[in-house]
Amino acid sequence: MSKESAAMPNKCSPSKGSTIAIFERLESEVRGYIRSFPILFDRAVGTTLIDADGREYLDFFAGAGALNYGHNNPAFKQPLLDYIERDGIVHGLDLATSAKKAFIEVFERCILKPRGLNYKLQFTGPTGTNAVEAALKLARQVTGRSNVVAFSNAFHGVSSGSLAATGNKEYRSAAGFPVAHVTFLPYDGYLGPSVDTLDYFEKLLNDPSSGLDKPAAVILEAVQGEGGINPASFQWLQRLRELTSRHKILMILDDIQAGVGRTGKFFSFEAAEIVPDIVTLSKSLSAIGTPMSLVLLKPELDVWSPGAHSGTFRGNNLAFVTARAALETYWADSKFEEEIASKSVILAEELESIVNDFPRLGLSVRGRGLMYGLVSQKLHSLPVQISREALHRGLVIETCGGHNEVLKFLVALTIDDADLRRGLSVVRDCIGAVQENIALDSRGGATRTPTD
Ligand SMILES: *Cc1c(COP(=O)(O)O)cnc(C)c1O
Q1: Which among 247, 241, 248, 183 is positioned nearest to 211, based on CA atoms?
Q2: pTM of the complete model
Q3: Which GO annotations describe the biological process of this protein (predicted)?
Q4: Which residue puts its alpha carbon closest to atom 15 of ligand 1?
Q5: Contact 319, 126 (CB under 8 A)
Q6: Are 153 and 167 in contact (CB under 8 A)?
C-alpha cells in the first residue's frame, strides 16, 4: 500500500473535530485525568501542550512525573527516529538487542559506577506497578516471609501486590477482594513534627508480642508523590535503613516518581546517603514517555529462576534508545543537577511568597528538588478549584493527597526559568481569583460554599 492510499479517507477514517464526546460515550467510566483536563490534546513540545484547536498550555504536570525532560526533547527524539528509520528491533521480548546492550552499558557507566552502587538489573513489564510486583515477589522469595511494611499515604501502583502496599481507599476498594499481607505504619511526619514514627516501628520489631509479623521488606518512597508530596527527612531515612539492616528486613525504595532527577539527584535516596536493597524505576526512565520499568537489586538477592517473572513487553527497545540518550545527555556530569537545584530555589521561594501573601488561606509548602506541593489544610477543596481556574488560564497542574488537598508542582526538570516564573504567576493569580469567590460566598451566604 502506498503512502497516498493509506492516507485516503474511507469509511473507517476518524473525524476532524476537536470535541471529546466520543470519550464520554465509549471510554469506560474509569477515565481519570481527562476529567480534570477535558481537552483534546494534539502536540507537545518541551513544556508546552497544544490542543487540537492550536491553543497552548503550559505543562506543570509532566505526565505525573513521566516527562522529567519535557515533551519530545530533541536530544532523544532524533535518536529514536534514526533507530526506527534503520529498522532497529522494536519488539524483542527479553532477547539481547544492541539497543538494550547500549542502555545497560550507559546505565552502569553514568549512573551506577559514579555512585558506587552495585546492583543487577531486572527489566519487568513496562508499567511501574509491574516493577513493584517484581520487587515484592523477590523480597518474599529471598526471606521466606510474606508480610511487608508499607507507609501511610504510600502509592505503589494498582495491580494487586502493589495495591496491597498502597494506602488510598478508592484504589484499594476497587480490587474487589481484600488486598493483604501488608502492615501499614505511619510515614515520617504523619503524627506531627515532634514524633519520630520509627520509635513505634522499632518497638514493634523488638517486642515478640507486638503482633507484627516480621516483614520481608519495607517499601517506601523517599518523597511520597500521589500521597501528597511528603518528603521523609534524611535522618528518618537513615534510621529506617539502619533499623531494617539490623533486623534483616529488605528495604525496597520505590523511585518511580521521585527518581530520575525529580528531587535533585538521579535517585531520591542519594542525598540521604542510604543504599536500598531493591530500587524500582519507571515513569521518566525512558525519558520520552514510552513505557519502561526497571528493578535494581543487590546481586546477592538475585534468586530468580529463569523467566520466573515473565512478560511479553519486558524491555521496550524504543525506550532503551531514548533512555540511553537521556543518560548520556544529562547525567554524564553534574551540570543538570546544578540546574535543577537553581530552579528548585525559584520554585520554593515563590511558593513561600504565595503562602505569605494569602495568610487567610492557611497554606503551607513542602517538597524537595522540583517536586513540591502547596498544601491547603484548612480548605481541602481549594487546590481543585485552583487547578480548574489554571486550566482556563492555560496552565495544566494537578492535585494530590488523600483529600486532594495538595496542588502538585511537577514541572519538567528542563523547564526554563521564564516559563517556571510564568506558571507560578498564573497560580498566584488563580489563588487570588479563587479567594475572591470564597470571600463572596461566606459574606453572601451563597451559591458556592467550599464543601469542606
Ligand atoms: C506511578 C507510580 C507507580 C505505578 O506506576 P504505573 O506505571 O502507573 O503502574 C508506582 N509507584 C510510584 C511511587 C508511582 O508514582
Answers
A1: 183
A2: 0.96
A3: ectoine biosynthetic process
A4: 257
A5: yes
A6: yes
pLDDT at 444: 43
CA distance 54 to 293: 33
Please list the rounded mean pLDDT of every run of 10 residues in the chain (452 residues). Answer: 66 91 96 96 98 98 97 98 98 96 98 98 97 98 98 97 96 94 98 97 98 98 98 98 98 98 98 98 97 98 95 94 98 98 98 97 98 97 97 98 97 98 98 86 45 43
Q: Distance, CA 193 to ligand 1 centroid (Å)?
A: 27
Q: How far apart are CA 261 and CA 200, in angstroms?
A: 32
Longest Cα separation, the chain: 74
Amino acid 446: pLDDT: 34
* Residue 281 Cα to ligand 1 middle (Å): 9
Q: What is residue 329's predicted lDDT score, i.e. its pLDDT?
A: 98
User: By C-alpha distance, which of 346, 339, 328, 360 is closest to 431?
Assistant: 360
- E strand segments, 179-288: 182-185, 217-220, 223-224, 230-231, 250-254, 278-281
Is residue 345 classed as helix, strand or coil in its secondary structure? helix
Q: How far apart are CA 210 and CA 197, in angstroms?
A: 16
- What's residue 451's pLDDT? 44
Identify the structural domains of the chain with CATH numbers, from first to last: 13-60 (no CATH), 76-330 (3.40.640.10), 343-363+424-430 (no CATH)
Q: Give 223's strand partners.
A: 231
15 neighbors 5 (Cβ within 8 angstroms): no
For 446, counting Cβ atoms within 10 Å of its Cβ (0-12 exposed, 13-18 middle, 19+ buried), the class is exposed
Q: Alpha helices of 113-258 — where are they, by DSSP H?
A: 128-143, 160-164, 169-173, 198-206, 234-246
